[in-house]
Amino acid sequence: MGFEAILQILIQGLNMGLIYALAALGISLIWNATGLFNFAQGDLLTVGGYVMLSTFSHWALPYPFAFLLTCAVMGLAGYLLSQGYFFPMFSQGLHPDIIVIGTIALTVLVQNGILLLWGPQAQRFSTPLGDSPVHVGQVIIMPYYLWNIVIVVVLVALLQVFFKKSILGIAMRAVAQRPVTASLMGVRTNHLVALTFLLATGLAAVGGILIAPVIPLIPEMGGLVALKAFAAVLIGGLGSFAGALIGGAIVGIAEVVFATLVVSTYKDVFIFAILIAFLLVRPRGIFSAEISEKV
Amino acid sequence: MSRLAYLKRIGLAQGILLVLALIPLIGVPAYQFYVLERGLQNVLVVLSLVILLGYTGQLSLGQAGLVAVGAYTYGILCVNYGLSPWLGLVAAPLAAGLVGVVVGFPSFKLKGPFLVVNTLAFSEIVRILILNNEKVTGGPFGLNRIPAIATGLPLYYFMLVVAFLAAVATLRLSRSHIGLALKAIREDEVAAEAMGVHVRNYKLLAFVISAVLAGVSGVFFANLAGYLNPDSFTINESSTYLLMVVLGGMDNVAGGILSSLTVTSLPEALRFMARSRMVVYSLILLLVLRYSNVLNLANLKRMLRRRHPPTYASMGGQNKVNR
Amino acid sequence: MSLLTTTQLTKRFGGIVAVNQVDLNVGSGEICGLIGPNGSGKTTLVNVITGIYKPTAGEVAFEGRPIHGRTPHEICALGIGRTFQNIRLLLALSVFDNVRLGGHIHTGSRLWDVLLQTGRLRREEKEVADRIDEVLDFTGLRQYRDELTRNLPYGRRKIVEVARALMARPKLLVLDEPAAGLNSSEKGNLMTLLSRVRDTGISILLIEHEMAMVEALSNRVCVLNYGKKISQGSFAEIQRDAAVVEAYLGTGGSHA
């Protein structure tokens, strides 16, 4: 296979892969801080896209401003979600399964909320780079490929600085000595948890902003993205920063590979099969961060 | 539980289903009756989760996939191969059970989100396979003109009988040493294993039993709808089943039956709210979860039994087990 | 004849050697005390014996047959029962149900029997209920039969765990600090109970910090420190052993 074909696959794969990585990152952050697996991350990502649709497309605010506004709104939503819903459940000592089902109920709310506020029809908007493909030899480069890669790289760099240098970031990393049992969740101050949710929904917002140019937004998108995001975070390693990125990249690239080389309608089946294989053989993922239970 | 407590619970399930049996006699409009039937069909899936989640503590987001296996096996055998619906009724749960073995196999080493994602992945694989095999399943165009075991009132009473048998079977399971082993697995796997429970096999058993129940539910779905489409078996349906079993008190059979009927008819009951009803519906569910340690049907019974209003301290526990 | 024998049993967790080449013997009808400072590997050793961990090296033999590497439920079936250092009961269930779980290994009825409530099931359930009452009588818990376990005081819960372990008719009972957290009268009751257990022919491997209990009950004692066996013999013998004194009290000499 030619070098150009490989490059095509890589770039196209990273395009969606980095979005999956953002969702995976959000899941890992919340997992590290609270031991909760957020099943609503895919739907939060979708809402982010819709909010941007309103600010950028409908209200015609300039892109950078709309971008930041969307992230701020989503971050606030995450903060309120944590303070008003999830943290109270943690401190009440509700069974962890119930809280997880809470995130599942959240997906139902979000999907219906989107349907109510924005309607069922598919909608999209473009990146500032426009929609005309660029041809470099045999390789077709959609402008959003570049846009997504650049944005995510910048974001990851900012996050690395945040986690290594800022006091808040270091505190959040310290909190990554994640409790296995829910009973310890009460130890985490509600502020740290709320900020973690804020960061996670902020990342979801970015993911939504980046996905809309690629795949038009529909209310059910959350469910479609979700399982790929779960595959990304589990293959890469739940709780690991690098794992989220690598996992996302793997899923994104695998998607393109299966679509082009094998029957395209079954591409998801192969990805899920890989996920199941990982669960069977190495559930900790590539960059494992699990702590086992003391008997 | 003692024999008396067990008989009381059977009595409760009987009572609920007796009420349901009498409903057609007072006359119900056709669409509302359909909703009632769907609620009854969902009872089987909720019971499957009472066993899998309530008793054994295994959280599954994949029940919709198992219902799909039941529904489509029945549909395909009847439509494509001209088999008698009764044969389909027997074959479908068996097929679902087989899939249950496959899904449940990894469960011995998977916990928490890993287990949930595993069940979800299998469910989605089932749905995609159905979607992309148009020749066999009709793909996105669906499977049409599915013959029924019965229609109208006879179908309703047939489902009622099956639901009752399933409820009794679940209660018998709960009371037995097998049920105790499952509950031990839910509470403390290590201790359960040390006490001689073969955890791996029992988890598998729970998955298979719940798959068979879901499969029967799928057959009824096919009978009620007459036509199948993969869009009816997504993560949304799986999520709803989970919400039902939580509302019903997790391991409570009567609670599960009531919550299945309630939640299934909730969108219909909220119809007066027009477009915002689904949002209200999901808000209600979120609230129920948030306050689920207080607000579930099992606790409701306890509260109704008290003569004085419950205090915070007295909530959520009783001093003696039912004798 | 030795009932339980470990040979050079070793368990590593990463770089930490929790159990280091331990040779242990428990004979028929005797109580063997297992003592040592906190962190000396007693619980880990017992977890390896009962199959919760797989040994890194060495062997465990029960009634002459190797059992190392077997799963906990297989080991339970072979006749080893146990209690846990931090109580692992099903608190939401009654004492009756908790003890009933202990008898699981001897149930023969299948799912079929349960669903159809066959005669076989009914007979078995009656036998089990009778046996539970027997065990409850033996351990003095009969009056708490239908109490929710979460309503019981800590000391009583520990006895429930012993009762649960006895349900399986073990040949060897492994107890991990059964006296911890008990008041003096509860300790006395426990000592009497364990004596009577031994009198029925059941051997006991007893991890304990309560030295009076170890002295009164043990036929012999094995001492661990930092995962290694440093002494064994009768209680009087190990009490005099300098290595044991040092392990518990430190060298105590003057500083340089």
What's the quick description here?
The complex is a heterotrimer of chains A (295), B (323) and C (256). Chain B has 323 residues and is mainly α.
Describe the protein's topology:
The complex is a heterotrimer of chains A (295), B (323) and C (256).
Chain A: H1 3-34, H2 41-58, H3 63-91, H4 96-118, E1 134-136, E2 139-141, H5 143-165, H6 167-174, H7 190-211, H8 221-236, H9 241-261, H10 267-281
Antiparallel strand pairs in A: 1-2
Chain B: H1 3-26, H2 30-55, H3 63-79, H4 85-104, H5 112-131, H6 134-137, H7 152-175, H8 177-187, H9 189-194, H10 199-225, H11 235-247, H12 253-269, H13 277-290, H14 297-305
Helix pairs in contact in B: 1-7, 1-12, 2-7, 2-10, 2-11, 2-12, 3-4, 3-5, 3-10, 4-10, 7-8, 8-10, 11-12
Chain C: E1 2-13, E2 16-27, E3 31-35, H1 42-49, E4 57-62, E5 65-66, H2 72-78, E6 80-82, H3 95-102, H4 111-116, H5 119-139, H6 154-167, E7 172-176, H7 184-199, E8 203-207, H8 211-217, E9 220-225, E10 228-233, H9 235-240, H10 242-249
Parallel strand pairs in C: 3-8, 3-9, 6-7, 7-8
Antiparallel strand pairs in C: 1-2, 1-4, 4-5, 9-10
Helix pairs in contact in C: 3-6, 5-6
What can you tell me about this protein's structure?
- The complex is a heterotrimer of chains A (295), B (323) and C (256).
- Chain A is built from ten helices and two strands, in the order ααααββαααααα.
- With 295 residues, chain A is mainly α.
- In chain A, strands 1-2 form a two-stranded antiparallel sheet.
- In chain A, β1 (134-136) and β2 (139-141) form a beta hairpin.
- In chain A, α9 packs across α10 (267-281).
- The radius of gyration of chain A is 19 Å and the shape is globular.
- Chain B is 72% helix and 0% strand.
- Chain B contains 14 helices and no strands.
- Chain B has helices at residues 3-26, 30-55, 63-79, 85-104, 112-131, 134-137, 152-175, 177-187, 189-194, 199-225, 235-247, 253-269, 277-290, 297-305.
- In chain B, α1 (3-26) packs parallel to α12, α7 packs across α8 and α8 (177-187) packs across α10.
- Chain B is globular.
- Chain B starts with a helix and ends in an 18-residue tail after the last helix.
- Residues 313-323 of chain B have low confidence and may be disordered.
- Helix content of chain C is 39%, strand content 24%.
- Chain C has helices at 42-49, 72-78, 95-102, 111-116, 119-139, 154-167, 184-199, 211-217, 235-240, 242-249; strands spanning 2-13, 16-27, 31-35, 57-62, 65-66, 80-82, 172-176, 203-207, 220-225, 228-233.
- Chain C is an alpha/beta fold.
- The longest helix of chain C has 21 residues, at 119-139.
- Chain A binds chain B through residues 31, 37, 39, 85, 88-89, 92, 94, 96-98, 100-102, 104-109, 111-113, 115-116, 223, 226-227, 230-231, 234, 238, 263, 265-266, 268-269, 272-273, 275-276, 279-280, 283, 295, and chain B through 53, 57, 59, 61, 106, 109-110, 112-114, 116-118, 120-122, 124-125, 128-129, 131-132, 190, 234-236, 239-240, 242-243, 246, 275-276, 278-279, 281-283, 285-286, 289-290, 292-293.
